[in-house]
Amino acid sequence: MNFYRHYLFPYVLDWAMQQAVLQAPRQRVLAPAKGRVLEIGFGTGVNLAYYPDQVRELETLDPETMLEKRVSHRIASSGRKVHFHQLAGERLPFPDNSFDTLVCTLTLCSVQDPGLVLNEVYRVLKPGGQFLFLEHGASPELKVRRWQQRLNGVQQVCGGGCQLIRPTKELVASSGLVFEEVSQYYLAKVPRFLGFMTEGRACKPMG
């Protein structure tokens, strides 16, 4: 299993993250990014192509380094300066009120403790700062959710710890962030147990 996770899974992840069905959601979610930006769950750097032109530099973190040559090429092609930290999101190495924008795409499904990650998001955002997110998770439909529960263990093994049953909207709301925009939907041509999405923008209150 360690062989799969460290040597095969990065290629599976990179293929999945580049699917055409995710392109429009990424563009929508990342369009408002501005100021000092932190991305949690950098993965293979797929988001770099979707940041607006005004984002020329960003901090990123991920507990794994994956496909380093491919990621280096993406960084170079993006023309952006990227500072990578090989760390998990549960304990961020930044002072309070450090960032204007924090980004999380298809990451809260895989972290060890999403509540703790979101508490850290709240802490390091400046008052008025924005959290941009795109996540899959638990469906509100009972029939779909039952299938998610049945398949969750398999998904964790095949998906590098990814879970199908996390309630994204509720988790973000419980962090104290305030929704500015949020939408939920099923991705077209994706099985419903895997494709229930929550995307949006939430802000840290001005205090």
Structure description:
The structure is a single chain. Helices cover 34% and strands 24% of the residues. The chain has 207 residues and is α/β, with parallel strands linked by helices. It has a seven-stranded mixed sheet, with helices on both faces. The mean pLDDT is 96. The protein has one domain: Rossmann fold, CATH 3.40.50. The protein has helices at residues 2-17, 23-30, 68-78, 114-124, 142-158, 168-174; strands at residues 37-40, 57-61, 81-85, 99-105, 125-136, 178-186, 196-203.
Main features:
seven-stranded mixed β-sheet; alpha/beta; 207 residues
Which fold name fills CATH's third level, the topology? Rossmann fold
The run of helices and strands is HHEEHEEHEHHEE
Count of beta strands:
7
**Helical amount:** 25-40%
Query: What is the CA–CA distance across the termini?
Result: 46 Å
User: Architecture in CATH?
Assistant: 3-Layer(aba) Sandwich
Structural class: alpha/beta
CATH superfamily: Vaccinia Virus protein VP39
Helix count equals 6
Radius of gyration: 16 Å
The geometry reads as globular
What number is the mean pLDDT? 96
Poorly predicted parts: none
Question: How many separate domains make up the residues?
Answer: 1
Beta fraction of the residues?
A: 15-25%
Largest sheet properties? 7 strands, mixed
The strand line-up of the biggest sheet is 3-2-1-4-5-7-6
Instruction: Tell me the name of the CATH class.
Output: Alpha Beta
Oligomeric organization of the protein chains: single chain
